[in-house]
Amino acid sequence: MTISMPAERIVILTGAGLSAESGLGTFRDKDGLWTRYDLNEVATPEGFARNPALVHEFYNARRTNCLEAQPNPAHEALARLQRAWPERVTLITQNVDDLLERAGALEVIHMHGELTRALCAACGHRWDAPRQMDPQAPCPACGRAATRPDIVWFGEYPYHMEAIDTALRAADLFVAIGTSGNVYPAAGFVQEAATSGARTLELNLEPSATASLFDAARFGPASQIVPHWVAELLE
Ligand code: OAD
């Protein structure tokens, strides 16, 4: 299979491995966030109901990390690819950081929400998150103290699924980058795209849980293999 031929429609799914070399932790690797924090306490609606201060503390720390981090060559390469072919490249990310945007990407679908946004759990209003969010802060729209990070937690439905399904069905090439293939629905996108006729490529540090479902793979640090792949496409 030729994976370097420009495809008509390229759908790219990214995960925490894309931002690992920018200094943002991944979740399931050795020393990953879920080895140090209980995801049931900090990434579920039930955990938030039990202890909103703890959940805000967790995401405040992640927001600070994100603000201090810089895009790496993999973010820059994907942004370059989308800017070169804006009509043909769909960027979907499970990441809640804004490093693709800061690298110059034109449009990023954040299926798991964004650290830079706040959401009122009472009325659904969204606004730009301050650097430190406070559980007592009133919603600017309804005034209730139900502020939460605009992050999709376990047990909640990911954002933009209709647009994602449409993109996957139309894809000629589906590429997953830096994701372990453990979290659905994202882990099922490779099958969805393949069923619709797309070729599939995994770019990761090591084979993911869904590696056997891809037509081809390249393994290595994202900052090296992604710019290389993008350069081949744009040649
Ligand atoms: P994981 O932490 O599960 O997986 C990270 C993947 O990146 C692994 O396959 C690593 O091998 C790979 N990786 C690590 N360093 C890399 C590097 N430098 N270059 C390339 N790849 C590298 O993260 P995700 O798959 O993104 O959801 O996790 C999916 C979701 O689970 C997250 O969005 C988050 C988490 O719980 C929520 O919080 C809702």
Short description, anyone?
The protein is an alpha/beta fold. The protein is 35% helix and 19% strand.
What can you tell me about this protein's structure?
This protein is α/β, with parallel strands linked by helices and 235 residues long. The protein folds into 2 domains: 1-22 and 71-112 and 158-235, Rossmann fold (3-Layer(aba) Sandwich); 25-68 and 114-151, SIR2/SIRT2 'Small Domain' (2-Layer Sandwich), CATH 3.30.1600. The protein contains 10 helices and 9 strands. The strands form 2 sheets. Strands 3-2-1-7-8-9 form a 6-stranded parallel sheet, sandwiched between helices. Mean pLDDT is 95; it is low at 1-5. The chain binds 2'-O-acetyl adenosine-5-diphosphoribose. 2'-O-acetyl adenosine-5-diphosphoribose binds next to helix 1.
Strand-and-helix sequence, N→C? EHHHHHHEHEEEEHEHEEH
Bound molecules: 2'-O-acetyl adenosine-5-diphosphoribose
Give me the secondary-structure category. alpha/beta
The backbone outline, from C-alpha atoms, is globular
Largest sheet: 6 strands, parallel
Radius of gyration: 18 Å
Tell me the fraction of residues in β-strands, as a range: 15-25%
- What's the tally of helices? 10
Top keywords for this entry?
235 residues, alpha/beta, Rossmann fold, 2 domains, 6-stranded parallel sheet, 3-stranded antiparallel sheet, 35% helix, disordered N terminus, binds 2'-O-acetyl adenosine-5-diphosphoribose
